[in-house]
């Protein structure tokens, strides 16, 4: 693990895409309002698509932060709306969080970078490899700090498995097999609403291999090291998607979908270990089973919870077994996003994902698509 200079405290944050509901409101922002992060970061501004939503969001979080001020002065969070250049020009902001649809990542991120602000951007960092690389190169040229929302590496099981692998307890890794089956909630069909219609346009870069594939391969390479080469098969099993209304009833609209429902990838790591990954979606039962074989021992990371309605990957809570013996996984009183924020605040580069790591993961996703399209082995 390397370190970088710790940010000046508290880091003055602005959010682009934070509303009163949604992913940012549910997962990204809440850890910032609890100790110890509440003393490390300070929310000072928000930016949304229009005046009404910006004012509503600013009011909500102004009231929240003020209520936690223990009798201190009332906090007023500034509302911005429309183009990201407005909030990016605010000299009272140190870092901006980009949590908008991937179709707008490039446009918004480049405005943030142009404004000289440090950047937190959600995965998948744009629609494709070219956009990710453009964002990375702009940030590198500007010299800003970056964080990417690849938080699975902060799960308790990931931290435990990495510590065991790094300790040499199982010896040199010789093979890894990772199988994930995801439930109907993540099925990418056969139905969807107008709100999520955009994810079925593969050019928008939010298919199963783009999103879940990215998170999984970040996890795998974070623990076992980089990939040398791979071969892949992507298969679509539901080519037509029916649009349903807000009551769940089918409409007359049917759209095509060419994204994958099955991802099969095999290859070799730079270390010489071989690996295989199989991810499927729309399964009747979820599954999470990762086996890592070393020269001295074996790790099994397995989630046997088959509760209906589970996502099957991002909500996995697997148990860890070393040579057949269950290993206790530390329970931490914060979310994976909270741990990522804390790692950034502490300057622990190498533990949280930056745009540099994000670009490497995007290159893996691109290689998977290239291999499947061309029926070839791809070298990274």
Automatic annotation (TrEMBL):
Transmembrane stretches, start-end: 12-33
Domain Gal80p-like C-terminal: 159-302
Residues annotated as domain Gfo/Idh/MocA-like oxidoreductase N-terminal: 13-149
InterPro entries xrefs: Gal80p-like_C, Gfo/Idh/MocA-like_OxRdtase_N, Gfo/Idh/MocA_oxidoreduct, NAD(P)-bd_dom_sf
Pfam families assigned to the protein according to its UniProt record, in alphabetical order: Gal80p_C-like, GFO_IDH_MocA
Listed GO MF terms: nucleotide binding
Keyword terms: Membrane, Transmembrane, Transmembrane helix
Protein name per Swiss-Prot or TrEMBL: NAD-binding Rossmann fold oxidoreductase
Species for this entry: Rhodocollybia butyracea
């Amino acid at each position: 693990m390397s370190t970088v200079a710790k940010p000046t405290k508290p880091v003055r944050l602005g959010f682009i895409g934070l509303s009163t509901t949604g992913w940012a409101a549910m997962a990204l922002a809440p850890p910032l309002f609890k100790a110890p992060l509440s003393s490390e970061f300070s929310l000072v501004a928000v930016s949304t698509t229009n005046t009404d939503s910006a004012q509503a969001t600013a009011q909500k979080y102004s009231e929240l932060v003020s209520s936690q001020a223990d009798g201190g002065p009332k906090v007023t969070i500034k509302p911005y709306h429309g183009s990201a250049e407005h909030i990016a020009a605010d000299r009272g902001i140190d870092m901006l969080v980009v949590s908008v649809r991937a179709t707008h990542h490039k446009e918004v991120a480049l405005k943030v970078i142009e404004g000289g602000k440090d950047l937190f951007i959600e995965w998948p960092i744009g629609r494709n490899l070219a956009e990710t690389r453009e964002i990375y190169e702009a940030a590198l040229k500007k010299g800003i700090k970056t964080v990417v929302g690849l938080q699975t590496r902060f799960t308790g099981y990931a931290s435990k498995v990495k510590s065991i692998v790094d300790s040499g307890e199982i010896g040199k890794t010789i093979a890894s097999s990772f199988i994930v089956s995801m439930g109907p909630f993540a099925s990418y069909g056969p139905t969807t609403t107008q709100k999520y219609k955009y994810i079925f346009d593969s050019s928008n870069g939010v298919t199963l291999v783009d999103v879940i594939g990215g998170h999984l391969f970040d996890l795998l390479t974070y623990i076992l090291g980089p990939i040398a080469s791979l071969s892949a098969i992507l298969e679509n099993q539901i080519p037509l998607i029916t649009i349903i209304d807000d009551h769940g009833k089918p409409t007359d609209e049917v759209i095509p979908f060419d994204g994958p429902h099955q991802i099969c990838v095999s290859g070799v790591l730079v270390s010489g270990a071989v690996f295989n990954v199989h991810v499927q979606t729309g399964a009747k039962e979820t599954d999470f089973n990762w086996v890592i074989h070393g020269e001295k021992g074996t790790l099994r990371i397995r989630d046997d919870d088959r509760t209906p309605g589970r996502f099957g990957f991002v909500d996995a809570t697997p148990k860890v077994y070393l040579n057949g013996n269950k290993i206790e996984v530390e329970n931490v009183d914060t979310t994976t996003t909270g741990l990522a924020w804390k790692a950034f605040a502490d300057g622990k580069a190498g533990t949280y994902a930056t745009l540099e790591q994000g670009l490497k993961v995007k290159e893996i996703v691109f290689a998977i698509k290239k291999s499947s399209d061309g029926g070839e082995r791809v070298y990274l």
